Amino acid sequence: MHIPINREDSESLISQIVSGFQDRIRSNLISPGQKLPSVRQLAKQLHVSQMTVVNAYHQLQAEGWIVQHHGKGTYVQSNIEDRSTPNEWDWQSMLVDYVPRAQFHKTSRLLVPDQLISLSFSSLHPDLLPSDDLIKGVQEELIQNPSMLLSYGNVQGEEQVRNIVGDYLNQNPQEIILTGGSQQAINLCARTFVGSGDVVFMEAPTYPAAIDVFRVQGARIIQIPTDNKGIQFNKLIKLCDKVTPKLFYIIPSFHNPTGRVMSKAEREELLHIAESYQCLILEDDPWSDIYYNAPPPVSIYEMDTRGTVIYIKGFSKTIAPGARISTLSAKGRIFDRLLAMKSLHDSGTSLLSQYTLAAYLRSGLADKNFSIVREKLGQRLKVALNTLDKYGPHDLKWGNVEGGLNIWLTLPKGKNADDIVRKSYEKGVSVLPGTAFFPHEVTQQHIRMTFSYTSMEDMKTGIKILCDTVM
């Protein structure tokens, strides 16, 4: 539990602790009847003496904010006598959160020049997007509900939209927050639960923007031990014994950039570890609809019964990139704190984007269109791999792509990814260096290329140029 303490402030430490609790109780970040940390726990967390905490609790009780029961603990005031069982979410309330008073400054994404063949932009070619269906749906929504352009809407997201999305995802609509894209959702999670010095476990390689977000928060990023078969759970447990993480950031379904998928058993094991160490899992799911052999196993969020998992489902890249829409799902007190942070970030996600998504999902066309997209992307993937195999050096390697839009290349020994990226750019082809996908320095050299954004002919031309550059 995070109570801000400023030792240089003229206000006493006791008064700061009292004010901190009052602010959190007023804003419902601490709920009526919730058990508070013990004197010893809070003193350790805040780096103050136990007597300071005792005096702060005495003042809060005298003013009617809390009640202390000998042998049972300290609780927020409100019908405490009727509380016969521990709150299901008590362990979550012990997680330190960092809800600031300022907005996060956004940065703009650099666009690829039109004259380049883009093998770097991990998004669908416009011809693969359901443009006509989206336009028709938006037009109908605007006619039926023109007021959507004249109001802010609900911070959590419109109830009607959440109901439709909940049906599509098989989730409780009350657990869903609609956000302006997956990047905003990751930001909200990081800003709420990750502070300076907190430990975040991440796969390596992983999504570069997530690395940047956690670095901004001052997190200590530690690589999850993996091999060619996936996570090495014995090593992970030993690592958790040494350094307990605050959060795992995971892309289990068609991982970016490798395209790997975690098995059901791996997901269950990771969830068990997170529950054992009482830390969070942030499950990022941009690609589960884009598979080439079989759909991925059930999400870790659906397996979760204790509120350990926060789930992000992105819709922008696969349905409407311009709409910038995704969902953020969580349970219990974790959900409450994420929604509180969302209210600090904005007054609500674009209603036009929300109703665009709702109209499309409600039409029943999503499954049909995704089936067509998977078939066309599967053809592109086959052509891309054949072109790499035909024109690439024999020691250029890549793994099995089970889903998603990317191919993860391992360069021959002695080749430098940054040099190849630069030279390819000079020849009119853009790819991404593997270094962008690691939180730390790497020994092997990699490149990520996509096969989804350019035309088929441009893709083949771009791959030939890339292979020639690698030679």
Question: What report would you give on this structure?
Answer:
The protein contains 16 helices and 17 strands. The chain is of the alpha/beta class. Strands 4-12-11-10-9-5-6 form a seven-stranded mixed β-sheet, sandwiched between helices. A hairpin with a 2-residue loop joins strand 7 and strand 8 (about 230).
List the helices and strands and how they pair.
Blueprint: H1 13-26, H2 39-46, H3 50-62, E1 66-69, E2 73-76, H4 90-93, E3 117-118, H5 131-144, H6 159-169, E4 176-179, H7 182-193, E5 199-202, H8 208-216, E6 220-223, E7 226-227, E8 230-231, H9 233-242, E9 247-250, H10 264-276, E10 280-285, H11 300-303, E11 309-314, E12 326-329, H12 332-345, H13 351-362, H14 366-391, E13 397-398, E14 406-410, H15 417-426, E15 429-430, E16 432-433, E17 446-450, H16 456-470
Parallel strand pairs: 3-15, 5-6, 5-9, 9-10, 10-11
Antiparallel strand pairs: 1-2, 4-12, 7-8, 11-12, 13-14, 14-17, 16-17
Helix pairs in contact: 1-3, 2-3, 5-13, 6-13, 7-8, 7-12, 14-16
